[in-house]
Amino acid sequence: MTEIDNQLLEQFFEPARNMQLEDRGFTDSVMKRLPDQAIRLSYWWTAFCVVMGLLLFVVFKGWEPLLVGVWTTARMLITNVRPVPFFLTMGVLSCLALLELAHRLERMQI
C-alpha cells in the first residue's frame, strides 16, 4: 500500500477509533474465559491423542518391531565388535563426556 492509501484508511476509521460501545462487561467476560477454555481443550486433546496412540500401539502390537530392532542391533553389535575401534570409540566418547561435564561445572561456578 502507498502512503496515500494509509492516510485514507486512517481518515476513514478515525471516527470509529473514538467511539465507545457499551457492552456491560461482555467483552471482558469473554476474554477472561477464552484462555481457560483453550488450555483445557488443549489438555483434553493431548490426553485423547496419548490414549489413542497407546491403544493403537497395543492393537497393532507395536512392541514386536521394537523388540526385533533391539535384538537385531544387539546381535549385530555383539558379532561385529572389533576390540580396538570399539575401545577407541568408547575412550573418545568418555573424554568428550568428561570435557562437557567440566565445562558445565565451570559455568555453574560463575
Give structural notes.
By secondary structure, this protein is mainly alpha-helical. The protein contains 4 helices and no strands. The two termini are 52 Å apart.
* Largest sheet features: none
Shape: elongated
Please, how many helices? Answer: 4
Helix content: over 70%
Number of strands: 0
For the record, give the distance between the C-alpha atoms at the N and C termini, rounded to a whole number.
Answer: 52 Å
Secondary-structure element series = HHHH
Give the structural class. mainly alpha
Radius of gyration: 31 Å
Give start-end ranges of low-pLDDT stretches: none
How much of the polypeptide forms β-strand, as a percent range?
A: under 5%
Average residue-wise pLDDT: 85
Primary descriptors:
elongated, 4 helices, mainly alpha
Summarize the entry for a quick read.
The protein has 110 residues and is mainly alpha-helical. It has helices at 3-17, 26-59, 63-80, 83-109. The radius of gyration is 31 Å and the shape is elongated.
How would you summarize the topology of this molecule?
Elements (H helix, E strand, L loop, with lengths): L2 H15 L8 H34 L3 H18 L2 H27 L1
